[in-house]
Amino acid sequence: MSSAPAQHDAPTDAPLDAVPADAEEVYAFTELGLRPELLGALSALGYEEPTPIQREAIPPLLDGRDLLGQAATGTGKTAAFALPLLNRMSAHRDGGDPVALVLVPTRELAVQVSEAFHRYGKDLGARVLPIYGGQPIGRQLRALDSGVDVVVATPGRALDHIARGTLRLGGLATVVLDEADEMLDMGFAEDIEAILEHAPAERQTVLFSATMPSRIDGMARQHLREPVRIEIGREQTVAGEAPRVRQSAYIVTRAHKPAALGRVLDVESPTAAIVFCRSREEVDRLTETMNGRGYRSEALHGGMSQEQRDRVMGRLRAGTADLLVATDVAARGLDVEQLTHVVNYDVPSAPESYVHRIGRVGRAGREGVAITLAEPREHRMLKTIERVTGQRITIDKIPTVADMRTRRLELTQGALRESLLEDDLDPFRVIVETLTDEFDLMEVALAAVKLAHEVTSPGSDDEEEIPQAPVRGPREGRPEAGGRGGDRRGGGRPRSGGGNTVQVFVGLGRRAGVRPQDLVGAITGETGIRGRDIGSIEIADRFSLVEVPQGVADEVISGLRSSTIKGRKATVRRDRGGEGR
Ligand code: AMP
Predict the structure, then answer these.
(1) Is the beta carbon of 106 within 6 A of some atom in ligand 1?
(2) Would you tell me how many other CB atoms lie within 10 Å of the CB of residue 265?
(3) What is the number of other CB atoms lying within 10 angstroms of the CB of residue 204?
(4) What phi and psi, each to the nearest 5 degrees, are found at residue 106?
């Protein structure tokens, strides 16, 4: 494609108003050399432009280069490796061994990544199979047998299938190591080495990692050939450009985001706010949801005509809309004087994008507030943004039901004070006088306040607490350097709930080279249980004992039984207190 960057799409992508897009260039997926089936899928998903990591990674990956990428969740890294991989695949293959293998640390990620492959590759008929422990092996065997194109697997289970001869790597053109630092932290280093030994030497290898400790560097040097290096969040140039606005973030799961947004808006009471979403689809969905919750919201995205956009902007300026829900592309060059709040409904895909977004407020000495709703896994990206901008983003607690009640009472009180100061209340005197024949004056006032409160601040219908999601990621809360799993596991207790725990016996110990992180890795990699839920780990010469919550003991046992630890199968059962050891 040779089109100029600013003209890539329909004319609807022209900047709004006459304000030039400040230092933001528009790129299009069409410029990256992707095939039409993929472009169609991206457009159907409402992706308007590639994220920075996609812009940088897709062309060299299409050329077959190896790649070493430093990027956290939230940057769009999954599409950055999935799209080129799908692009190079022959469409609608029959049977056959996989052409690509993606290794991921957890089963949650295996599912997410294979869903992403499905979404992008459905018009190519791509057959994608997630394989992880804890899932019936029969289904995986049948799927592998009938032929797949892409396997997305946790290392332990992948190795199991390789050993059984059910996963054959001879036809691999590409291997992706996703979240490599987490895989190493979880003790999968040896499994990964063993897997790579089975892959053809002539292959493309892609490694993504949120951090680049020396172990990752070593792994890259050993397995990648002249890789292209990409780092998202390296640019220090944006520091100092960032406007001085109050910046805070809330950690919340996706399911609770609309309710959290509503609550934050209620507490903040913005004059006008812009809410940024990643895709057109999300803009439409959120606009509808927020309108349903009583916020006057308008959608703005690249799929709308100039006339529609002008109408939306008119309503925002006139104050008949409070909330503009927009994609980055559509909001480019937008300058609305009334804007007081910028909300990132998702963490932006790069620090630069964050800076551009929050630059919509805090202009020309105006005060601004920037709020980010981050999913637990996106916490690291927030840290990257803080580092690059040199500004703090405070993690706040989502307002509770009690906070909301207090806030609503304050609003009612404010409305009454205003009325006392400004309104002509005489016509109502007769009501008060008549009622005070029968009731106390205070009681009359209270009843009037109650009625006023119900009108000025109706309670929202979701009066449930929104859970503050815990920050996720195995490295969180640990020192970056020297945080060896062995130390931290000493006398630890499961941190969740503090309920009953049981000891699980694993028939491999120090002599087999087992370390606490190997056990944590095997459990979290092959089950849905998080490292923080695992309690103390005791490693003896010939066996280990792992303390886990009673309720998940069976899942842990079956997960450990179906995987390998240090490449070996172990006896795993509930500990019976020393009997038979
Ligand atoms: P990831 O960093 O790969 O976990 O992706 C984060 C999220 O961004 C996922 O929900 C993707 O669906 C979404 N996403 C990835 N690329 C784009 C894009 N170019 N435009 C809009 N959304 C995207």
Answers:
(1) no
(2) 20
(3) 23
(4) -130, 165
The single-letter code of the amino acid at 156 is G
List, for residues 294-329, the tens digit of each pLDDT value: 889 999 998 888 899 889 988 888 888 889 999 998
Cα–Cα distances (Å) from 128 to 99, 102, 162, 220, 527, in that order, read 11, 10, 17, 26, 20
> DSSP label at 216?
H
C-alpha–C-alpha distance, residues 339 and 368, integer Å:
8
Coil, strand or helix: which one is 481?
A: coil
Whether residue 127 has its Cβ less than 6 Å from ligand 1: no
Domain with CATH 3.40.50.300 in the chain: 29-232
Reduce the DSSP state of residue 58 to 3 states and report it.
helix
DSSP 466: P
Amino acid found at 180: A
Burial class (CB in 10 A: 0-12, 13-18, 19+), 422: exposed
CATH topology of domain 29-232: Rossmann fold (3.40.50)
Give yes or no for a contact between 537 and 518, defined as CB atoms under 8 angstroms apart. no
* Domain 488-574 fold: Alpha-Beta Plaits (3.30.70)
The DSSP output letter for 289 is: H
Q: 73 CB under 6 A from ligand 1? A: yes
Mean pLDDT of 453-470: 72
Would you say the pTM of this structure is higher than 0.85? no
According to DSSP, the β-strands at 341-344 and 204-209 are: unpaired
Q: What is the mean pLDDT of residues 362-386?
A: 86
CB 326 within 8 A of CB 300: yes
* CATH 3.30.70.330 residue window(s) in the chain: 488-574
* CB distance 124 to 37 below 8 Å: yes
Closest ligand 1 atom to 116 CA: 12
Nearest to 250 by CA among 348, 371, 357: 371
